[in-house]
């Protein structure tokens, strides 16, 4: 039986498409009461992971559960998880309202719910219009409305901000936050950290199908260290003087300057003065989150060198957690304390909910792989499917933790 927890567990998920290792040994949990951002560049395996989670692709190995069950065993899954993988799957001639009524009928939900969710996503005035004439942003809203039909406990959205205008993004942000604060679970993917930064509490950052960072967004923020960049007349002499002052995190920059972590501008200036080294320039630099994200995920389509590099020493160096991809991340088995129990989430009136809580757990950093492992395909991903609240699949006798290579779901598998 499903445990009603609203928790998503992804464990050692792996998917190969022929030679392409789309997802490699991915493990993370998503807890109720929070919004988790699933981030990575194009082609990094986000959609494939979400498709496995929603029972649309059979994993090569590993498994995932929602409420303690594989998707295939959720009974009426549309009532538990609302999934949007692509906002293009509407019958072009069908009105938004009729589209929703078709899904409502398949799910055993009253017709009235179609109008409720249309209003909820701001499409109340467009219910009689054919979906084929909708803008991308309107299609995103309609897809979200479809996912919300079953009043689900868990939302899984693939790049939901794509095509939304700034107002739409702001609306989505407040909607998802309120949804999560009502005790529900939200997992959203994006290839742009900035797009979801203000929405998410936790991040899973992947590159080439592998985990690069997994933990609270605040941990990622804290890891951004500032550094002092200085242009000395004699870099070698200053480096020695800094060393003697126990400032050891000093590295040369490509343009002949020194980058110093763990000292203030004033300290560096004083030490340089005492050592008799002239300074031609000094300033403080701070990496923003986007830069860190880029460093963690760069090399997606490059050769060997930049692959999987953590930020270089002295520059946003990660805490030494030593999380090896494939090792089940520890510390994420508990619901973060302080999240409110699920409250009745009234459509159209997102509740204020519990105050945001800091995640208690430690972040998990990936160890960069020793070397390039995969010949990487640049082929674009195949056409995706909308899977908003599908009708229940046939019952599947495969246990959630048994041999997961054959979860035995219906015909959508590849
Ligand atoms: N059905 C498929 N057949 C072959 N390769 C695929 C298929 N779906 C995805 N891929 C490949 O898997 C990798 C990950 O793709 P995808 O999960 O769509 O990444 P993302 O959603 O992060 O952009 C890409 O190299 C993509 O080309
Ligand atoms: Mg994708």
From TrEMBL:
Region entry Disordered, spans: 304-414
GO MF entries: ATP binding; ATP hydrolysis activity
Biased composition (Pro residues): 388-400
Biased composition regions of type Low complexity, renumbered to the chain: 317-347, 354-387
Family: Belongs to the ABC transporter superfamily.
Pfam families, sorted: ABC_tran
Protein name, as recorded: ABC-2 type transport system ATP-binding protein
Keywords from the named record: ATP-binding, Nucleotide-binding, Transport
Domain ABC transporter: 8-233
Key word Cell membrane present: no
Top-rank lineage group of the source organism: Bacteria
């Amino acid at each position: 039986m499903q445990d009603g927890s609203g928790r998503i567990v992804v464990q050692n998920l792996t998917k190969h498409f022929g030679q392409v290792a789309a997802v490699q040994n991915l493990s993370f949990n998503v807890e109720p009461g929070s919004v988790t951002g699933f981030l990575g560049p194009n082609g990094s395996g986000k959609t494939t992971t979400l498709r496995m989670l929603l029972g649309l692709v059979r994993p090569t190995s590993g498994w995932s559960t929602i409420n303690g069950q594989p998707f295939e065993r959720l009974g009426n899954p549309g009532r538990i998880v609302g999934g949007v993988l692509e906002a293009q799957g509407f019958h072009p001639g069908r009105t938004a309202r009729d589209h929703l009524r078709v899904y409502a009928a398949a799910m055993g939900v009253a017709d009235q719910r179609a109008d409720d969710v249309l209003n909820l996503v701001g499409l109340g005035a467009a219910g009689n219009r054919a979906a084929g004439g909708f803008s991308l942003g309107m299609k995103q809203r309609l897809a979200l409305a479809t996912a919300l039909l079953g009043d689900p406990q868990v939302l899984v959205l693939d790049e939901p901000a794509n095509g939304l205008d700034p107002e739409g993004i702001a609306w989505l942000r407040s909607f998802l936050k309120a949804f999560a604060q009502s005790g529900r679970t939200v997992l959203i993917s994006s290839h742009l950290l900035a797009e979801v930064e203000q929405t998410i509490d936790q991040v899973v950052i992947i590159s080439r199908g592998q985990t690069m960072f997994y933990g609270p967004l605040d941990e990622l923020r804290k890891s951004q260290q500032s550094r002092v960049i200085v242009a000395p007349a004699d870099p070698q002499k200053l480096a020695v003087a800094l060393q003697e002052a126990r400032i050891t995190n000093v590295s040369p920059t490509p343009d002949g300057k020194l980058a110093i972590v763990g000292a203030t501008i004033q300290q560096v200036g004083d030490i340089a003065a005492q050592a008799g080294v002239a300074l031609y320039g000094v300033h403080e630099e701070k990496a923003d989150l986007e830069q860190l994200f880029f460093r963690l995920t760069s090399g997606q389509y490059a050769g060997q060198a930049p692959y999987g590099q953590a930020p270089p020493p002295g520059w946003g160096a990660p805490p030494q957690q030593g999380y090896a991809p494939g090792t089940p991340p520890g510390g994420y088995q508990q619901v973060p304390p302080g999240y409110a129990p699920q409250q009745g989430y009234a459509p159209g009136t997102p509740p204020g909910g519990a105050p945001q809580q800091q995640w208690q757990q430690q972040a998990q950093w990936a160890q960069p792989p020793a070397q390039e492992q995969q010949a990487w395909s640049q082929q674009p991903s195949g056409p995706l499917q909308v899977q908003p609240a599908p009708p229940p699949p046939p019952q599947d006798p495969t246990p959630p933790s048994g041999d997961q290579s054959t979860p035995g779901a219906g015909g959508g598998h590849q």
